[in-house]
Amino acid sequence: MKTYALLLGALRLPGAGAFAAPQLATRVLSLPSGPHSAYLVRLFAARNAAMTAGLLLSAPPARRLWWRTAIACDALDVGAGLLALREGKPRPSALVDIGAAALATALGLAGLVADRGAAR
């Protein structure tokens, strides 16, 4: 299996799986239980599923654009987490959000680099 596909699985598949089990994700992310949180989790899960499909189904030049788009989304998630922390979100919950988004950003960058190396 190609390195970029392994990184993609580590990066996106858990998030996409949250679509089927949003209650588990709300507990892990310390979100209040209920339909509003489940909806928000499913929004992120749908984004992860779309990114996964785009990355897996595209040819190398287009796939690099998908990587960059995913990295930008994840970096914006880091920013959103920092804003939430500043606006009063409980620190432990905000740090989980920020850490997960930072890890996703780093894995996305690694995937982009690995994919570029595989294309040469």
Domains, number: 1
User: β content, as a range?
Assistant: under 5%
Number of helices: 5
Query: How many runs of DSSP E, i.e. beta strands?
Result: 0
Share of helical residues: over 70%
Distance between the termini: 17 Å
Mass-distribution shape: globular
What structural class should be given to the helix and strand makeup? mainly alpha
What are the low-pLDDT stretches, counting only 5+ consecutive residues below 50? none
Radius of gyration: 15 Å
Q: Largest sheet at a glance?
A: none
Quick structural overview:
The chain is mainly α and about 120 residues long. About 85% of the residues lie in helices and about 0% in strands. The protein has helices spanning about 5-15, 20-30, 35-55, 60-85, 90-120.
Provide structural commentary.
There is one protein chain. The protein is mostly helical. It has one domain. Helices cover 84% and strands 0% of the residues. The protein contains five helices and no strands. Helix 1 runs antiparallel to helix 3, helix 2 crosses helix 3 and helix 3 (35-57) packs antiparallel against helix 4. It is globular. The chain starts with a helix and ends with a helix. The model has no long low-confidence stretch (mean pLDDT 86).
Task: Please render the helix and strand layout as text.
Blueprint: H1 3-17, H2 22-28, H3 35-57, H4 60-86, H5 91-119
